[in-house]
Amino acid sequence: MEVQLGRLPTTFPSPFLQALKPSNHLLGKPCKLKEQLDVNGYVYLKEFHNRQDVLNARNAVLQYVNQQGKHILDTENHTIENGVLNHRCGLGCLPFMEGQNAITHCHEMNKVIEGQHVYTFFESYFGEPVTTFDFKWLRAMHRDGFTGAHVDRVYMSRGSEDLLTMWTPLGDIPANMGVLAVCEESHRAQGFTKLQQTYANCDLEAQGVTGSGWFTEYPEEISKMGGKWKTSNFEAGDVIIFNIRLVHMSTANLTKFVRLSCDTRWQPSSHPIDKRFVGDLKTTSPKYGVHASQSPQTKTIENLKVTWGLI
Ligand SMILES: O=C(O)CCC(=O)C(=O)O
Predict the structure, then answer these.
(1) Spatial CA neighbour of 232 closest among 48, 23, 42, 18
(2) What is the mean pLDDT of residues 46-63?
(3) Is there an atom of ligand 1 within 6 Å of 254 CB?
(4) Tens of pLDDT along 212-240?
(5) How many CA atoms, within 13 angstroms, populate the side-chain half-sphere of residue 237?
(6) Taking the mean position of all CA atoms in its chain, how far away is CA 182?
(7) Of all atoms in ligand 1, which is nearest to the CA of residue 248?
């Protein structure tokens, strides 16, 4: 299948972008799951959520998206449930849904992303009660849109170092429609030491960095340090869970369908928590990522890379 990883056209599966192997055989064995997460930086689990619950959440989000404007979905030729984008709908046309709001916390979404099965999994994994951020990164990705390579730590380092991200695709999402891709072992492989000591240790907000916060939009800039890019044709119910130092990005949405997904964050309740993402969060506007704005005068990852000797 022809895909695009960030800005790079490539093929999946291929030696450059390999297929993720599920770790379902390790479910119920928290020590083994931990070992796998420590070694690879992630675990990929098929059918983690109930498929029908995910499809219900997808429909609730699609109804919401359609209510935000007439020219977002092509409802003249397709049903809302098909999620086909109007051909004129690009960046800025889809609603920004991240945060804590009516759609992130609707019944259908809650049943998936904060269901008892998720609490049970993380409680077993951490061996203690767990907390999830109230902030949810619910995303609708436009045609050709993607997320650049980054580590989550640059956005959320003021709490637990054991923070985990769970990426949940809302629907069946093949690799050419905008799926999460991880650079295996990038959290610990020797070639990443400098990146981990500079970029990954940076608190973007404290440093006043503007823009997306991504390290790069070009995956070769990451894999030249080591590691291996991996992804999958995700199906509704599948998840990938990874740590805050693992480099990841997404493939581009080369299809006519809107890509819907949600990333949620989980940690032991006994650990300090990044207060920016819990409590009453009120309205949230885009700060980093695909919707971020950037002024050339301000501090950016591009000029920091020169300071860090990573260019
Ligand atoms: O869904 C995406 O495009 C990116 C998700 C991501 O970066 C994350 O889950 O941390």
Answers:
(1) 18
(2) 98
(3) no
(4) 999 999 999 999 999 999 999 999 999 99
(5) 11
(6) 10
(7) 7
What are the pLDDT digits (tens) for 132-160?
Answer: 999 999 999 999 999 999 999 999 999 99
For the chain, the domains span 2-308
Is 0.85 surpassed by the pTM of this model? yes
Residue 139 beta carbon below 6 angstroms from any ligand 1 atom = yes
Binding site membership of 261 for ligand 1 (Cβ less than 6 Å): yes
pLDDT given at position 91 = 81
Which residue out of 96, 98, 137, 183 has the highest number of ligand 1 atoms within 8 Å of its CB and is therefore the one to mutate? 137
Tell me if 180 CB under 6 Å of ligand 1. yes
* Ligand 1 atom with the shortest distance to the CA of 261: 1
Per 3-state DSSP, what percentage of the chain is helix, strand, and coil (rounded to 5)? 30, 25, 50
Taking the chain, what is the end-to-end CA distance rounded to the nearest angstrom? 32
Cis amide linkage into residue 13, ω under 30° from 0: yes
Domain 2-308 has CATH 2.60.120.620: yes
Please report the sign of the dihedral spanned by the C-alpha atoms of residue 222, residue 253, residue 261, residue 54: negative
Is the distance from CB of 48 to CB of 239 less than 8 angstroms?
Answer: yes
Interacting residues of 134 by C-beta distance below 8 A, sequence separation 6+: 100, 277, 278, 279, 281
| Cα distance between residue 156 and residue 133, in whole Å | 11
| SS3 assignment, position 54 | helix
**Does residue 263's CB lie within 6 angstroms of at least one atom of ligand 1?**
yes
**Most distant CA pair in the chain: distance in Å?**
53
**Does ligand 1 lie within 6 Å of residue 98's CB atom?**
no
Which tokens belong to 264? 């949620």
Q: In this structure, which residue's CA is closest to atom 7 in ligand 1?
A: 249
